[in-house]
Amino acid sequence: MSQSLFRYLLLQNNDIVLLIGQDGRIVDANDTAASVYEHDRGELLALNIQDLCAPETAFDVSEAIKDSDGRVLEFKISQRSRSGRVFPVEIIARSARMDDEEMLLCVISDLTEPEPAGKSRSKDKKYEELKTAYEEIKTAYVELAKTTYESFNDISSLMLSKRKEEQARKRAELLSNTDYLTGALNRRAFEKRLDAEINRARRENLTLGVILIDIDLFEKINGTYGRQSGNEVLKKLVEFLMQKCRSYDIIGRCGGKEFIICLPGAALEDTFKKAGRLCETIPELKVPGLENIRITASFGVSFLRETYGENISTIFKRAVQALDKAKSDGGNCVRMEE
């Protein structure tokens, strides 16, 4: 490997880069490595790679160099920082001859999941943004289809391709699970999450509440002010719900003007009170172009019963019945399953 390529990887790569001798000693490291492992660079160069591995995790450098023989190796292990944090990593490595010594060059990606975004998930996921993301997915996969790992000239090209592939996969998953207009989960994705929460509630003997929401007089808004104004109402409502709900509550769009919320750990009474607070505050929504229009909604509340045969369909059916009762009572109110 040329010195110039190594310096490029060491200084420019946002992933961890380590150069390791056959005996496991760390010969060089970049700033990202110092930050992640919580050692300054001088301390890192005094360590062996095994010092950075999680307990009971072995990293045989000499064997890796032998297996590599100039080709790229990929594997996953667990490592640890100075403070004792253990985290999973993916290592892409190959042997490299530096200063007349065979060494192992490693580019390491921290696979730790990011912290939940919580209420920040309410940020706009507008149609045009998702459309752009979809085009990026197609472009990334076209590029990947034209390239094989054997054609890579250096390890940085491999890392770039893998990163594009991962970004494309995540964007594809977002598009397949998300309602393009509002950013809420689509019905299929919501039902999958709700089914998982039902199973968890049964295993751990937990409660679970469901709120079904229908915007009052939505057809009149669409007919009078146009579909664009109606779309703004839908987006503002979901933004409002995401702000008012807990980070682990699940919000989905189950129809044109209907939305549904799953509240893990909430009993029927708690769910009813939550729906009541939402019902009282929705009229405070301010929608561009509809400042003089009072937005209201009707609510149907259901919960997970401890009965045989209880499932998504039975919970949803009771929520629909309660919602129908709220609509027949004039709307802008909350009704609970009987």
Task: Explain what the structure shows.
- This protein has 338 residues and is of the alpha+beta class.
- It has three domains: 3-110, PAS domain (Beta-Lactamase, 2-Layer Sandwich), CATH 3.30.450; 118-177; 187-336, Alpha-Beta Plaits.
- The protein is 43% helix and 20% strand.
- It contains eleven helices and ten strands.
- The chain has helices at residues 3-12, 31-37, 41-44, 61-68, 127-145, 155-177, 187-204, 218-225, 227-244, 268-281, 312-328, and strands at 16-20, 26-29, 73-80, 86-98, 101-110, 208-215, 250-253, 258-264, 297-303, 334-336.
- The strands form two sheets. A five-stranded antiparallel sheet has the order 2-1-5-4-3.
- Helix 11 (312-328) links the parallel strand 9 and strand 10.
- Helix 5 crosses helix 6 and helix 8 (218-225) crosses helix 9 (227-244).
- The radius of gyration is 27 Å and the shape is elongated.
- The chain starts with a helix and ends with a strand.
- In angstroms, what is the radius of gyration? 27 Å
Largest sheet: 5 strands, antiparallel
- Tell me the fraction of residues in β-strands, as a range: 15-25%
Distance between the termini: 73 Å
Helix-strand layout with pairing:
Elements: H1 3-12, E1 16-20, E2 26-29, H2 31-37, H3 41-44, H4 61-68, E3 73-80, E4 86-98, E5 101-110, H5 127-145, H6 155-177, H7 187-204, E6 208-215, H8 218-225, H9 227-244, E7 250-253, E8 258-264, H10 268-281, E9 297-303, H11 312-328, E10 334-336
Parallel strand pairs: 9-10
Antiparallel strand pairs: 1-2, 1-5, 3-4, 4-5, 6-8, 6-9, 7-8
Helix pairs in contact: 5-6, 8-9
